Amino acid sequence: MKKILVIDDERDVLEVVRSVLKTKGYTVRCAEGGEEGLRQAESEAPDLIICDLMMPRISGLEVIKRLHANPRFDSTPIIVLSAVGEDSDKPTEFWARGLGVDDYITKPFDPLDLLGRVEFIFRRGSYKSLQDTEAQHAANGGQAAGRTPLPHAPTPKPVDLAALSPSELVKVYVDSWNIRDWETEYRCMDDSIMGHFPLDDYRLRREQAFAEEGGKRTQHVTEILEEYSVSDMGRVTCEREDNLGERTVRKRLTFSLKKRDGGWRILRFKEEPVRAKL
Do 112 and 159 lie in a common domain? Predict the structure, then answer.
């Protein structure tokens, strides 16, 4: 199981982060402050480091600088968890790029959002590792060993996301799967979800998922159950129907959205199965 080192000078933050990460079985080590964090990084060789910025004696910025200067941590992803930038109009991507880290989450934070970011970073390694394989498949005419090649994806029509209501954006997001329009699907999601994950890597990730299902599943929003928005925040609850050849599965999805300059964007969503009526 992956080992995660959490560095923060607030014990309550360490306990919250430790508790939520352990729900997924991660091995979590906590360091109270930058000095202890650097010592544990050297001794524990973690797979991921989560670090605060504002700490006494050795700040998180100094911790990150020392980690970057150490070849042992060249491939160790870092997530910054900090109140710096909370009141700024800069996106989290701005802070992540400026610090040279893999993600940036502002305090106060949603523990489930943190968990999702951690899982996303660990999965990203497997997505990127597919690039050489996909290139080899293309050199062989696009067919992998033992796999039936997928048909070419149709050319998607441009979508003006800024003109869409929250429910319309959700429908576009869901339908993007059917035509493999990964760019539109990517653009439907807020930067706070994607961090600074490149579009090309996201395309590879989604194409892999599509291929693993053999391109047989289609999905559609069948009904909008609830939609409301207040100021720049919105929520949409809908039912989605997945067609899997001879089988149909219905799910209820609830989307949280935020309105940006370019229109509504999806912050997060949850899904649950819809039980058949007796």
Answer: no
